Amino acid sequence: MAEVRAKKHLGQHFLTDERVARAIAETLPEGNGLPVLEIGPGMGVLTKHLKDIHGERLTAVEIDHESVAYLAAKMSDVKVVEGDFLKLNLEELYPEGENFMVIGNYPYNISSQIFFKVLENRDRIPVCAGMIQKEVAERIAAKPESKKYGITSVLLQAFYDIEYVMTVHEHVFNPPPKVKSAVIRMTRNGRMSLGCDEKLFIEIVKRSFNQRRKTMRNSLKAMINERIENEDVFNRRPETMSVSEFVVLTNLIKG
């Protein structure tokens, strides 16, 4: 069967380097016996290494019909679900609350949406790893006091420990992307709940970073009342605030 044609509207850049593929596959722990869900297998260069490591525990979800047909012909022993991960009912795929790990060479145009769906299902996904655009990876892994630290950093780091694993250059893809890529690994931390109003926490984080050059006093002025207006925290800027400090701030505003 002929190779799959990369489709721009799906953000497809097929990985061609076997060593890079193996390194990505090895970012997931082997000994926990959990099922593995690969997002966007394409022509299966990462898939075959995942299959080698995790065997029948591997399932791949692929939106591109041409890729699904290619995998069926070339890797008939791999379970492939045709569909959009963002719309996929994970309860149907993994019933009875079964935990699973997520990995992939993610389409760059929807990588943030993928991670936020993982975040929504965090109690079932202890590990998520894979390759994304380098700039996005740096934002996700950024720490306070960094210019790249922002909304995505705070919301994902609230429940996951983030590791920037390695940088991947353009020449290992077909077609080559115009940007460098990076592999990250997200491992569930011990925080079961934030200890605050989670919706308010998200709103505060977004409001703060949407005006990141302003102090918290200015970006959150609609939320500040006389009871708390003199608190020192409102003199700070959002990039200096850790996840725990945003939790404290949320409880302060909630009162």
User: What gyration radius follows from the Cα positions, in whole Å?
Assistant: 20 Å
Share of helix, binned: 25-40%
Shape: elongated
Percentage of residues in strands: 15-25%
The count of DSSP E runs of length 2 or more, i.e. the number of strands, is: 9
Question: Helix and strand string, N-terminal first?
Answer: EHEHEHEHEHEHHEEEHHH
Number of domains: 2
Number of helices: 10
Report how far apart the termini are: 63 Å
Q: Give me the secondary-structure category.
A: alpha/beta
> What is the name of the CATH class of the largest domain?
Alpha Beta
CATH T-level fold name of the largest domain: Rossmann fold
Largest sheet: 7 strands, mixed
CATH superfamily of the largest domain: Vaccinia Virus protein VP39
Instruction: Identify low-pLDDT runs.
Output: none
> Could you report the average pLDDT, rounded to the nearest whole number?
94
Strand order of the largest sheet: 4-3-2-5-6-9-7
CATH architecture of the largest domain: 3-Layer(aba) Sandwich
